[in-house]
């Protein structure tokens, strides 16, 4: 969106926040060139969907938005936007959200509706593309890109954040959401097998009971960190981990953190997530292991490898991907979809006039 916003206005409409004794309104602020829009609704709001629709309609009028594209990251937003008439509709399908824990009951129906409405569908990985390619005539895979310069800072950082500085070495780390996608048994097994290793887990606990997280002296949960802070944590790790469970929620994920770890200069060990195996595992950029003994062995090998050779291979791969390149390719597809919609509308208007 930051790339898109350099060429056109971008309003990023967030999920609502609820608070006591507030009148429904929009909280608007800038994040660089992107305008962030957050609906603020009263607690217990019985008509949240209708309120979001009214607030969005008001924003469109006040901001004088005339010719616009709707870009969806979740089908749930369709509930308060289906009345709009965009020049094009993009469904940026990053995950199979209906497979996630506690997914809304109407998510599948809204997903199917959005697939029908979309002028262009993007998928966040190759496996998700393969599962959906028969559902749409204009669908394209866009695996995770990476802000290489941001994460490459880790290669030049030699001091730890205070909460990590107290943790011994070697350190094996993970950053990201901690939910049903993480293999907690694997994490526990690695910690028990190698009590001299320190496992650093950075990120929020979501949708699972924190009490279910394995507790060991060598497992350290440091909580959420900002995007700007992440390179400072990764810089102090000896191995970066992708300890994902193999379940319905991970069947189609394409972890953005894979190239981010590589840009940070860390060796990576992952479970056999398909979009990590292809291409990273197949090209020898990431070690793949699923059970505790093989995962421990992969981590040991990662810590003993020639880092100079790995960095050369990683950098050669990363030069082929960037958010700038991704946006350039998407822009071409978006412009083509908008042109097709304009031609279709013009044709329909002509046919209507002739019929009259």
Structure in words:
The protein is α/β, with parallel strands linked by helices and 356 residues long. The chain has two domains: 4-145 and 324-355, Rossmann fold; 148-318, Rossmann fold (3-Layer(aba) Sandwich), CATH 3.40.50.2000. It is built from twelve helices and 14 strands. A hairpin with a 2-residue loop joins β3 and β4 (34-42). α6 (184-193) crosses α10 (292-304). The longest helix is centred in the last third of the chain and has 33 residues, at 323-355.
Structural descriptors:
12 helices, disordered C terminus, 356 residues, six-stranded parallel sheet, alpha/beta, Rossmann fold
Query: What share of residues is helical?
Result: 25-40%
Q: Give the CATH class of the largest domain.
A: Alpha Beta
User: In angstroms, what separates the terminal alpha carbons?
Assistant: 43 Å
Number of domains: 2
Q: What is the CATH topology classification name of the largest domain?
A: Rossmann fold
SSE string? EEEEHEEHEHEHHEHEEHEHEHEHHH
What is the correct CATH architecture of the largest domain?
A: 3-Layer(aba) Sandwich
Radius of gyration: 23 Å
Category from helices, strands and their pairing: alpha/beta
Strand content: 15-25%
As residue ranges, the low-confidence spans are 348-356
Shape: globular
> What's the rounded overall pLDDT mean?
93
Per DSSP E runs of 2 or more residues, the count of β-strands stands at 14
List the helices and strands and how they pair.
Layout (H helix, E strand, L loop, with lengths): L10 E3 L3 E3 L5 E7 L2 E9 L5 H15 L6 E4 L15 E6 L13 H11 L2 E4 L2 H7 L6 E3 L6 H4 L10 H4 L5 E5 L8 H10 L4 E5 L16 E5 L6 H5 L4 E4 L14 H7 L4 E3 L3 H8 L5 E2 L3 H13 L2 H12 L4 H33 L1
Parallel strand pairs: 1-4, 2-4, 5-6, 6-7, 7-8, 9-10, 9-12, 10-11, 12-13, 13-14
Antiparallel strand pairs: 3-4
Helix pairs in contact: 6-10
């Amino acid at each position: 969106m930051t790339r898109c916003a350099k060429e056109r206005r971008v309003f990023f409409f967030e999920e609502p926040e609820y608070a006591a004794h507030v009148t429904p309104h929009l909280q608007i602020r800038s994040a660089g060139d992107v305008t962030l829009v957050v609906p603020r609704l009263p607690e217990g709001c019985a008509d949240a969907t209708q309120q979001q629709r009214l607030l969005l309609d008001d924003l469109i009028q006040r901001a004088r938005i005339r010719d616009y594209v709707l870009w969806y990251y979740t089908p749930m937003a369709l509930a308060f936007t289906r009345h709009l008439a965009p020049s094009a509709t993009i469904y940026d399908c990053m995950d199979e959200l209906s497979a996630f824990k506690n997914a809304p009951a109407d998510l599948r129906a809204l997903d199917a509706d959005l697939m029908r409405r979309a002028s262009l569908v993007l998928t966040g990985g190759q496996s998700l593309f393969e599962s959906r390619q028969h559902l749409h005539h204009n669908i394209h895979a866009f695996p995770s890109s990476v802000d290489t310069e941001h994460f490459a800072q880790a290669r030049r950082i030699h001091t730890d954040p205070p909460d990590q500085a107290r943790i011994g070495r070697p350190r094996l780390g993970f950053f990201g959401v901690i939910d049903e996608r993480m293999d907690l048994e694997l994490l526990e097994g690695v910690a028990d097998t190698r009590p001299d290793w320190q496992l650093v887990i950075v990120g929020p606990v979501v949708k699972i009971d924190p009490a279910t997280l394995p507790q060991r002296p060598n497992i350290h949960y440091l909580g959420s960190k900002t995007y700007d802070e992440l390179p400072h944590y990764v810089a102090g790790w000896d191995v970066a981990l992708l300890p994902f469970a193999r379940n319905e929620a991970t069947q189609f994920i394409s972890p953005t953190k894979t190239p981010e770890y590589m840009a940070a200069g860390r060796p990576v060990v992952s479970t056999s997530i398909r979009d990590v195996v292809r291409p990273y595992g197949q090209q020898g950029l990431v070690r793949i292991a699923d059970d505790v003994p093989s995962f421990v062995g992969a981590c040991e090998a990662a810590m003993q490898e020639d880092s100079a050779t790995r960095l050369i291979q990683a950098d050669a791969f990363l030069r082929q991907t960037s958010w700038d390149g991704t946006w350039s390719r998407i822009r071409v597809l978006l412009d083509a979809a908008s042109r097709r919609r304009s031609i279709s509308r013009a044709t329909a208007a002509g046919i209507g006039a002739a019929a009259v």
